[in-house]
Design brief:
Blueprint lengths: L1 E6 L4 E9 L5 E10 L6 H19 L3 E5 L7 H21 L3 E4 L1 H9 L6 H11 L9 H42 L3 H19 L15
Parallel strand pairs: 1-4, 4-5
Antiparallel strand pairs: 1-2, 2-3
Length: about 220
Amino acid sequence: MRVLGVDPGLTRCGLGVVESGAGRTVRMVAVGVVRTPPGDDPQERLLTLQTEIDQWLAEHRPDAVAVERVFAKANIKGIMGTAQASAVPMLAAARLGLPLALHTPTEVKAAVTGNGRADKAQVTSMITRILGLDAAPRPADAADALALAVCHLWRGLADARLTDAAHGNALQRATAAATRAGGPRNRLEELHAAHASRGAAAGGSPRPQIATVRRSAQ
């Protein structure tokens, strides 16, 4: 599974693509930051952001998009640009029919560091270790985007395991009930075949690895 993580912002928007490996291993496919000049009109800045995100989606073909959930605190005016920027990847995912998830900063911090109150330095340090990078992603927006993608990837794998376990339990109960009732053998075979097909669909097909790391122009 491949995920595009987006840390929204008008001045700096972090983008990071990660891909799952065996078990909980994850590797980075690409990371970068989109910058827009503060002096430009808001619509022009959003257009620049949209153009870059569309290009990333076309190039890296993620299976899902994860965006940081924006919270309005005391500084409502300051959060407006971030809220506007967050709509761009959400619409881009909707146009392509890609699954979209919004994760809070606390969820992301807890997923990658085990501490929902971790600071940016801790998140950057842990994401560097998780992805086995030679150098920490800079600026922090880039590390945050990778952390979002990793958080969504791990949560998705956990949800898939829970779903598979639920299907397995349901299959066992149905098998036991059919056996007690003396149900036909072909019905049991249908249940097993349905469960097997769900597992195959969840596994998907492997993607070719991409070694290059793309960074936007400074």
